[in-house]
Amino acid sequence: MYSDHLDKFIPEEFNLEKYEVAANMPLECWLVNLSMRFLGYISSKTPMESFDDSQKALIRNINTQNIQSGVITDQRINQLLNELIMHDQSESSSVVKEITYLELFLLADNLKSPELEKLYIETELSTFSVLNQDNAGKLNDFISTSDIYPEDELSFLQVDMNNSDNEIKSAFSGWLQQEREKRKSDKTTNRREHQMKNFNTVTFRKWHDARVIAYLDLITWNCLEGNKVTSKILGDILFPETSIRDTRDTTAMINDTIKPLANKLADRTVLKRMANVIADKNRQKIT
Question: Which of 54, 60, 118, 172 is such that its CA lies 20 to 30 A from the CA of 24?
Answer without folding.
Answer: 60
